[in-house]
Automatic annotation (TrEMBL):
The modification N6-(pyridoxal phosphate)lysine is found at residue 290. It catalyses: L-glutamate + H(+) = 4-aminobutanoate + CO2. The keyword Metal-binding does not apply. GO terms for molecular function: glutamate decarboxylase activity; pyridoxal phosphate binding. Its EC number is 4.1.1.15. Belongs to the group II decarboxylase family. This is Glutamate decarboxylase. GO terms for cellular component: cytosol. It comes from Tetracentron sinense (Spur-leaf). It is an enzyme of class 4 (lyase). Gene3D superfamilies: 3.90.1150.160, 4.10.280.50, Type I PLP-dependent aspartate aminotransferase-like (Major domain) (3.40.640.10). Its cofactor is pyridoxal 5'-phosphate. SUPFAM superfamilies: PLP-dependent transferases. Keywords: Decarboxylase, Lyase, Pyridoxal phosphate.
Length: 512
């Protein structure tokens, strides 16, 4: 006891942190250490390890915000120790909101965000009527909640009609984000996917409406497909579904997954009808941490009216003081993200969001044109969707998109490559998401680096990916084997390994 105390004292007082024994020896990885370590050493160890993470601002794979103004960073740090549920009332219904006499300031901020976003989406609200919506961790939680509301509404209706209600389904495009598949599996709803085809990478509204049946709890349209940024035609879907509902007597509603597009369309495509202006759109989700311009950890879901959110899903708790209605999957969470969202909404206003979105669109066009000039790529994104550029090689018989992606990493760029969902799985694309902090200089720099990569690939004799099999054998439970397709990640890993070998072989030949 005395000995170890002396040792740690000497570490702290005599050596710099780097010279202390804590930084020189490694800690047990998967077990808690016997003794405490000095705070400086803990900081240093973790900080050093994190240095090896990629630079988030060069991660062009993600829609999630990586830069905010320093004033907002300050507000975030100041509220980092506040638990959101301790002070919050969820504005699920107007009466409950009015009955709360001493709301905390954070609650006001939260309510304002919900109302501002509902107005942005053209919710049909009377003058002083409060919007119906909740803040979530992201669009995934928002989609779980919206899906649950549809499921419950449909079940209640079927039960009242004396019809079976055990086989609910949702109709979507095969291009849906993975959170819809999660919702389907966790909450036992079948996902009926409209297949894609080469050259058409979003849900075809006509085919979607054909797939709707009496068990369909909603059709989910995407404003800004994750794969190529394209906006789905929600207006056409709404019109076709109105017809079908008339013929069949059903009242199948629409949910719009506006995770990325919800903060784009209102500012640069105000004429586009995709939101509550369309009568069948009953709920919309948006990720505050994507083009809402807040760091990871916030999303929103807004319902058209109170009637679209079944009352029995709302929990009333009172053990933290006054009555609080809540409808979220988690209880405690930080307040910082809500405060940061409010900062962006008031700081930027309509003008600010419009400027940023226009700028992103222009930078996407600069990049798109730069890529077209190389003459080597087909562009599979549209200029009037989410600001991103998705592209594939015109000729991938010698080298694939996975190899381009891999080589770009050497320049520090993270540009993902992936195969499209069925029935366009033979198409591979590279995707660059343009965020606020991706400047024109960076766009131009990226084109130059892509050209370098192409040039280098052209001089390479061998096609790495040709040596890698697209499939592998997998053992089944009965010990027989089946041939399965390798995942994109597996392909990427194998290509990286093959490149490393090649680069090392080159070095030994003295070639640079
Ligand atoms: C990002 C995304 C999601 C998931 O959103 P999170 O905020 O990351 O949970 C869902 N749908 C679409 C279309 C998305 O782009």
């Amino acid at each position: 006891m005395v000995l170890s105390k002396t040792a740690s004292e000497s570490d702290v007082s005599v050596h710099s942190t780097f010279a202390s024994r804590y930084v020189r020896t490694s800690l047990p990885r998967f077990k808690m250490g016997e003794n405490s370590i000095p705070k400086e050493a803990a900081y240093q160890i973790i900080n050093d390890e994190l240095m090896l993470d990629g630079n988030p601002r060069l991660n062009l794979a993600s829609f999630v915000t990586t830069w905010m103004e320093p004033e907002c960073d300050k507000l975030i740090m100041a509220s980092i120790n506040k638990n959101y549920v301790d002070m919050d009332e969820y504005p699920v219904t107007t009466e409950l909101q009015a009955s709360h006499l001493h709301p905390h300031p954070t609650q006001y901020i939260y309510n304002r965000c919900v109302n501002i976003i509902a107005h942005l989406f053209n919710a049909p609200l009377e003058d002083s009527e409060a919007a119906v919506g909740v803040g979530t961790v992201g669009s995934s939680e928002a989609i779980m909640l919206a899906g649950l509301a549809f499921k419950r509404k449909w079940q209640n209706k079927r039960r009242a009609e004396g019809k079976p209600f055990d086989k609910p389904n949702i109709v979507t495009g095969a291009n849906v984000q993975v959170c819809w598949e999660k919702f389907a599996r966790y909450f036992e709803v079948e996902l009926k996917e409209v297949k894609l085809r080469e050259g058409y990478y979003v849900m075809d509204p006509t085919k979607a409406v054909e797939m709707v049946d009496e068990n369909t709890i909603c059709v989910a349209a995407i404003l800004g497909s994750t794969l190529n940024g394209e906006f789905e035609d929600v207006k056409l879907l709404n019109d076709l579904l109105i017809e079908k509902n008339k013929e069949t007597g059903w009242d199948t509603p629409i949910h719009v997954d506006a995770a990325s597009g919800g903060f784009i369309a209102p500012f640069i495509y105000p004429e586009l009808e995709w939101d509550f202006r369309l009568p069948l759109v009953k709920s919309i989700n948006v990720s505050g941490h994507k083009y809402g311009l807040v760091y990871a950890g916030i999303g929103w879901v807004i319902w058209r009216t109170k009637e679209d959110l079944p009352e029995e899903l709302i929990f009333h708790i009172n053990y933290l003081g006054a009555d609080q209605p809540t409808f979220t999957l988690n209880f405690s969470k930080g307040s910082s993200q809500v405060i940061a969202q409010y900062y962006q909404l008031i700081r930027l206003g309509h003008e600010g969001y419009q400027n940023i979105m226009e700028n992103c669109r222009e930078n996407a066009i600069v990049l798109r044109e730069g890529l077209e000039k190389t003459g080597r790529f087909n562009i599979v994104s549209k200029d009037n969707g989410v600001p991103l550029v998705a592209f594939s090689l015109k000729d991938n018989s010698c080298h694939t998109e996975f190899e381009v992606s891999d080589m770009l990493r050497r320049f520090g760029w993270i540009v993902p490559a992936y195969t499209m969902p069925p029935d366009a799985q033979h198409v591979t694309v590279l995707r660059v998401v343009i965020r606020e902090d991706f400047s024109r200089t960076l766009a131009e720099r990226l084109v130059i680096d892509i050209e370098k990569v192409l040039h280098e690939l052209d001089t390479l004799p061998s096609r790495i990916s040709a040596k890698i099999s697209l499939t592998r054998e997998e053992k089944k439970e009965d010990n027989s084997t089946v041939v399965v397709k390798k995942s994109d990640l597996e392909m990427q890993r194998e290509i990286t390994t093959a490149w490393k070998k090649l680069v090392m072989a080159k070095k030994t030949n003295g070639v640079c």
